[in-house]
Amino acid sequence: MTHLLIDAGNTRVKWALVRHGEWLDHGALEHHRIATLAQVTAGHAPVGVLGTNVAGAHVAEAIAAALPLAPRWLTPRERCCGVINRYDDPAQLGADRWAALIGARAACPGPLLVVGAGTATTVDVLSAEGEFLGGLILPGEALMRRSLARDTAGLPLAEGDPVDCPRNTRDAIVTGCLQAQAGAIERMFRHIGEQPGALCVLAGGAAERIAPLLALPLRRIDDLVLRGLARIAADEAAGGADDKRILG
Ligand SMILES: Nc1ncnc2c1ncn2[C@@H]1O[C@H](COP(=O)(O)OP(=O)(O)O)[C@@H](O)[C@H]1O
Ligand SMILES: CC(C)(COP(=O)(O)O)[C@@H](O)C(=O)NCCC(=O)O
Ligand SMILES: [K+]
């Protein structure tokens, strides 16, 4: 009973093939290579495809066209797998954020700050009781650097690593954009920081660049969204004990 799990973000499509909780294979594709998903499933004959997509209808269509069976796309609900969604309109929450919260809850008990450092950075507060209390959306560090290059006359697309106290334009940009990420994360951590066992769980393509700047209890789990989808698929296979209305 192999399942294909898909995390379609605004930069890349991440995927994993899982069977009875075992990860057979996984990978990441840029949008222009989505058609190669066909090779991923060849020889595996998945019985189901469960995914999150925040990259728009054209990406959903390209993924569907590459696969032998129709993907089911996750829609955030009021509760699922021990997580309660306190967004004003639960369905408006990004499906990737919802799956990441579920994956984080399954991996780590206790109060969490769940950070998705991708195209955008999301910084979400999950209480010890499993309540998603709310969170931030800000441009990711690469998007911040690109926007400075695009919308100013004098700034380049700066690349490189952060420094302590920048004394040139390139270092000022790189360090500024990374510190903006770290600062937002550290400020949101104050919501749970006083509680026993409080932990920041960091995922996403930019995690490696942000992690060294963070002065807080940290665990990196790079495939948090896919892990959440695996948890949901397992719950569903067990009869959806926690919530029968998982999918939209
Ligand atoms: N090889 C890479 N290709 C694309 N993005 C990368 C790469 N290495 C690091 N990044 C960083 O990862 C981000 C994309 O991460 P990802 O988690 O895939 O985002 P999304 O879920 O939005 O598609 C980029 O914005 C950039 O900051
Ligand atoms: C915030 C996001 C753009 C993050 O997407 P990503 O960076 O992973 O590509 C996505 O979760 C989204 O479109 N959310 C819907 C709005 C919301 O969560 O309130
Ligand atoms: K994100």
Mind explaining what this structure looks like?
- It is a single chain.
- By secondary structure, the chain is α/β, with parallel strands linked by helices.
- It folds into two domains: 2-73, ATPase, nucleotide binding domain (Nucleotidyltransferase, domain 5, 2-Layer Sandwich); 79-226, ATPase, nucleotide binding domain (Nucleotidyltransferase, domain 5, 2-Layer Sandwich), CATH 3.30.420.40.
- The chain is built from seven helices and twelve strands.
- The protein has helices at 37-41, 57-66, 95-107, 141-151, 169-189, 207-210, 224-237; strands at 2-8, 12-19, 22-30, 48-53, 72-73, 79-80, 83-85, 112-117, 120-126, 131-139, 199-203, 218-220.
- The strands form two sheets. The chain has a seven-stranded mixed β-sheet with strand order 6-7-10-9-8-11-12, with helices on both faces.
- Helix 3 (95-107) crosses helix 7 (224-237) and helix 4 crosses helix 5 (169-189).
- The two termini are 22 Å apart.
- The structure holds adenosine-5'-diphosphate, the ligand CC(C)(COP(=O)(O)O)[C@@H](O)C(=O)NCCC(=O)O and potassium ion (K).
- The site of the ligand CC(C)(COP(=O)(O)O)[C@@H](O)C(=O)NCCC(=O)O has 14 residues, from helix 3 and strand 9.
- The ligand CC(C)(COP(=O)(O)O)[C@@H](O)C(=O)NCCC(=O)O binds at residues 9-10, 54, 92-94, 96-97, 116, 118-120, 122, 137.
